[in-house]
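Notebook p. 47: complex prediction with S-adenosylmethionine.
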Amino acid sequence: MTADDASELDQLLDEQIAHYRAIAPEYEDHVIPFAGADELVTALDAFGPGGTVLELACGQGMWTGRLLRHADEVTAVDASPEMLAIASDRIGRDDRVRFVRGDLFSWEPDDRYDVVFFGFWLSHVPLERFGSFWALVANCLKPGGRVFFVDDAHRSPGELVEGESSTTIRRQLNDGRAHRIVKVPHRPADLERRLAALGWAVHVTSRSGPFFWGSGSLV
Ligand SMILES: C[S@@+](CC[C@H](N)C(=O)[O-])C[C@H]1O[C@@H](n2cnc3c(N)ncnc32)[C@H](O)[C@@H]1O
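Predicted complex, structure tokens below:
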């Protein structure tokens, strides 16, 4: 990657953060209208994220409460203070939760966890940063720790302003403002192979609609 490419990617990732900061108050208006999301919850409960849990890109805390049904403690990180404020209101007073503002492309953990979880985040990690993101996940886990993620591969035709093959899309707010964000349409088998090449044994499952989930650990 040239210096120009790297700086273009940094700009895109900054725009992605700006997008989520701006969309925070209306985030639930943009939830994708497909059946199958309930399977993700069932799969997470079956995985059982017990012990100490790190949630990356927690957003409005839609998954944080679910994690707290299993976990002793949850540390939840997100780059958007607006998202974190909504998450904190949603969870209310709970000494088992710590919300942390951090940019996951530079953030460093101050602890190691039994489980790392991320919901609808992996598809926003550009492929150029896929390896370094998973190195961060490895660095956040205790020996024998486990990872669980849920995501979707949905991109609407109107978002594909740079073409079907591009992983950069343009997403709109209710008032028409738009930002470029990353949306990688991972396919389960390719994702498993990509992770195996980095030393992870992760099983990725997809049943209905565009949703999938993955669970596993470092080999
Ligand atoms: C699609 S939302 C998912 C939120 C939540 N996990 C959920 O499932 O509802 C993506 C989240 O990633 C956060 N985010 C975007 N770029 C980030 C970055 N560089 N570091 C940390 N969080 C980031 C956004 O603020 C947003 O909350």
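Notes: Residues 1 and 128 are 9 Å apart (CA to CA). The chain has one domain: 3-208.
Next step: compare against the earlier run before touching the bench.
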